[in-house]
Design a protein that fits this description.
binds FE2/S2 (inorganic) cluster; elongated; binds FE3-S4 cluster; Ubiquitin-like (UB roll); binds iron/sulfur cluster; alpha+beta; Fumarate Reductase Iron-sulfur Protein, Chain B, domain 2; 10 helices; iron-sulfur
Length: 248
């Protein structure tokens, strides 16, 4: 079924902007990104939107549809009725560059702050052996397409810009958890997660998990196990005594 949809799209830059109304034809089987492209082709040639694969795999087309963080290419028009107004706005937690394009460099900065995988110094190539259960755990986290929808959704930064300095966000706390649980990684990442990357800010609301297009169980499989590891360290009497005696 084809029909004319009512779209409300945010137009503007880092200084100013507004929601503008458009009427755009929709065809059977289309997704929101198709409509944004038709809008660009027919009525708003300078509309800025970031996209690449149109298959839910590059993580570029993240935006908010009716206030919910979504991949534009994976949001089917069939989830709306012809009477609905579909509002498309840029990710709220990151600064707008223009129209639907935001500056996501916060995420790249946080990625750079995490020390990389550290295998034992004497382990030679070919000696890396892992149990299937450990491989599977990493594989779940490695499905991440870096769409940053989880980063945009977490209230710790969505509502508190000032927390960005000290909070890495679910995607990068998950990266730390992946490395911490990796059987061949010898770095102890617990203090770092808690002190430098703000694991304690996470109060397990699970909003990050709800929006993840890869259905990664960010909270249950990464953040909570990481919190348990930090707690074990803090409340283990032997560790506590060791910290008292040997650390300042
Ligand atoms: Fe996107 Fe999920 Fe990766 Fe977060 S964890 S960046 S929501 S794919
Ligand atoms: Fe934020 Fe996810 Fe924790 S939404 S509060 S990082 S569970
Ligand atoms: Fe690649 Fe949407 S365009 S995920």
């Amino acid at each position: 079924m084809s029909y004319d949809a009512q779209f409300r799209v945010w137009r503007g830059d880092s200084e100013t902007g507004e929601l503008r109304d458009f009427t755009v034809p929709v065809n059977e089987g289309e997704v929101v990104l198709d409509i944004i492209h038709r809008l660009q082709a027919t009525q708003a040639p300078d509309l800025a939107v970031r996209w690449n694969c149109k298959a839910g795999k590059c993580g570029s087309c993240s935006a908010e549809v009716n206030g919910r963080p979504r991949l534009l290419c994976m949001t089917r028009m069939s989830t709306f009725t012809p009477e609905d107004v579909v509002t498309v706005t840029p990710l709220r937690a990151f600064p707008v560059i223009r129209d639907l394009v935001t500056d996501v460099s916060y995420n790249y900065e946080k990625a750079r702050e995490i020390p990389s995988f550290r295998p034992p110094a004497d382990l030679k190539p070919g000696e890396y052996r892992m149990q299937q259960v450990d491989v599977a755990r990493s594989q779940e986290f490695r499905k991440c397409i870096e769409c940053f929808l989880c980063q945009n959704t977490c209230h710790v930064v969505r509502d508190h810009e000032e927390n960005k300095e000290s909070f890495a966000g679910p995607r990068y706390l998950m990266r730390i958890a992946e490395l911490e649980m990796h059987p061949l990684d010898v770095a102890d990442r617990r203090d770092e997660a808690q002190e430098q990357h703000g694991l304690g800010y996470c109060n397990i609301t699970k909003c990050c998990t709800e929006v993840c297009p890869e259905h990664i169980k960010i909270t249950d499989n990464a953040l909570i196990p990481m919190k348990e590891r930090v707690a074990d360290r803090k409340y283990d009497p032997i560790v506590w005594l060791g910290n008292k005696l040997f650390r300042r």
